[in-house]
Amino acid sequence: MKTLLKLGTVAAAVAFSLGAQAAEEFPAKDKTITIVVPFAAGGPTDRVARDLAEALRKPLGATVVVDNTAGAGSSIGAARVARAAPDGYTILLNHIAMSTMPALYRKLAFSVPNDFEYLGMINDVPMTLIGRPTLPANNYKELVTWINQNKGKINLGNAGLGAASHLCGLMFQSALQVDMTAVPYKGTAPAITDLIGGQIDLLCDQTTNTTPQIEGKKVKAFAVTTPKRLTTPALKDLPTLAESGLKDFNVSIWHGLYAPKGTPAAVVTKINEALKVALKDPEFIKKQEGLGAVVITDKRVEPAEHKKFVQAEIDKWGAVIKAAGQYAD
């Protein structure tokens, strides 16, 4: 027994020594840190990643690049990082999909709670409920009346199964206890085009996509999905869904950073410390505000709190998706 205890102590000491050495050497001068974005280049998540990569270079003292690995609602890119060497040089930047994949996909090549080290949250992106310009309703109260008068006839667009707009739409229908016809598109752009053209009635999507259309009066805006009203000039007069009667309605698209499971704790700490510095970078904050995003300043920037938050989101969205019976396979 004493021999086993001694061996266990030696193993723990070796592991600690290797972790400390990895942290001391991380990041190596001749190595590049790759942020994997599980979506195509040019989209909102890609923009967040590129802004963050730039803000991380100085505190990390390393080259940080973005690599897009799109497909299957972000699960292909996430799987790539889950399989990567746990050394801190390949990390994942993903959004709310981290909390919806466990329910949307019956078979995943990884476990969101168990196959990643959580590095910290980055931002929150509010969402807006918008309608076609010819919709009879001009405010949220009138919209609810119109919805109740047209049950079974309403087309609710989304950017694809598992997209932010799909999730917001599910939550909105659940809150109102009204079924609408889901019309999926291959991205937000064609969905908004059809909304403007009157082919669909409603869309709930993030401010990064809807604000220009609201400013240009190409769509009708009814509400925001966050607990508090927004300060963006074009959106500041919009009520929240919570204050409009949908108690506790709160949907935002958040982004976080993840490393493969087994990445040394000291390396996780180094990346997290660099992230905290990046999130205070004035230029990064300015760019995020330009996207309608709010940079995280609360405890969710800590790895443990980030993981706790994601688990709560998994529970929330799992219930919504299960009730709707909408799966990716």
Topology:
Layout: H1 2-25, E1 32-37, H2 44-60, E2 63-68, H3 75-83, E3 90-94, H4 97-104, E4 116-125, E5 127-131, H5 140-149, E6 155-158, H6 164-176, E7 181-184, H7 188-197, E8 202-206, H8 207-215, E9 220-224, E10 253-260, H9 265-278, H10 282-290, E11 294-295, H11 303-324
Parallel strand pairs: 1-2, 1-3, 6-7, 6-8
Antiparallel strand pairs: 3-10, 4-10, 4-11, 5-8, 5-9
Helix pairs in contact: 1-9, 2-9, 2-10, 4-11, 6-11
InterPro entries: BUG (IPR005064), Bug_dom1 (IPR042100)
Keywords: Signal
Family: Belongs to the UPF0065 (bug) family.
Structure in words:
The protein has 329 residues and is an alpha/beta fold. It has two domains: 2-125 and 253-324, D-Maltodextrin-Binding Protein, domain 2 (3-Layer(aba) Sandwich); 127-224, D-Maltodextrin-Binding Protein, domain 2. 44% of the residues lie in helices and 18% in strands. The chain contains eleven helices and eleven strands. The chain has helices spanning 2-25, 44-60, 75-83, 97-104, 140-149, 164-176, 188-197, 207-215, 265-278, 282-290, 303-324; strands spanning 32-37, 63-68, 90-94, 116-125, 127-131, 155-158, 181-184, 202-206, 220-224, 253-260, 294-295. A six-stranded mixed beta sheet has the order 2-1-3-10-4-11, with helices on both faces. Strands 7-6-8-5-9 form a five-stranded mixed beta sheet. It is globular. Residues 10-15 have low confidence and may be disordered. InterPro entries: BUG (IPR005064), Bug_dom1 (IPR042100).
